[in-house]
Amino acid sequence: MNRLCEESETYRNHIPLLITEAICAVACMPAFAMLMYIFFTRKQRPITSSMHFNFRLLLSNIWVVLMLQLGFTIFSNAYLLYFQIFDTEYCSNVFYTWQCSVLRWPLLWTVPAMIFIHGAAFVERLMATRKSRNYEHRGKRVALVAMIVLWLITITINSYVFSVPDMFEKLPYCLATFQKNQLKIKKFLHLLLPLELLITFGDICLWWVNRQTQKKTVYSDYSLSKSFQQSENTITSKLVLQISLLHSGFYIIYLVSTSAYRAVSSYDEHPMTFIVVVMNIHNIVVLGLTVCIIVYLWSLRVMDDKRKIREMNQGSKKNTEMYFMLLYTQLK
What we know:
The chain is mainly alpha-helical. Helices cover 83% and strands 1% of the residues.
């Protein structure tokens, strides 16, 4: 116990670790604030309300995942900073494994969750653009079933990868990775990298195919259903492609960086240095999320402005036609 207390006090007095905790918490705040803005202003955007239920459900799940990741990052870092700075009693900075799991696991659980949702978004766009009739026929069941399956897979895989045999073991510092699950996490991250690359490649191919098909398509039997589906696919595809590429870029950099560092270093060799580097690498994800949210809000605003201009032009055209029609009636 004395050795554990001494080790915990070493962590408490390690200035780079304290600074990293503060940086991680502050870095999440802009993205967290923008997520709250999206939630409270969601009804003020006609563009999103016109999207298909499946795509809106997908966006809602992405919002939940991001809130979990950013919220727990801010809370866990602030919580640990408080104990390290204000609770100065000797050996008070010792935690149980289950406490660290509650504080830290959501940060890493959301990493594979975002990749799986990225895959779900690709499947949804694939069905909506390439199998539109089947997509319309199945309706809301597509997204509901996909989200249930996605969360079951995420919870099952994460429970296995991050599990540890003893949840009541005492630790000198809270981490999401422990000595007994480091190897599983390392292998899991190695599997996520090619999966993310494959989904990104699929996004690019689907965008190119849809663009080529749209140029060659001539509707011989026009209908309101086809018109709405084409308009909805255009809007959502514009959102999906650019945000997916941004998301993939940052996630690939993160996965490559953390996998490379975990391959050449370990917690056992230099524990405090290992923690500081891993936490700073995770800020790549936070930066990527912030940029993606900014692009998402900017894209919605641009599309909404274009819609307003189009409506104004149509309204002006109708007023002009009505004016000349009335003038013609008077002259007649």
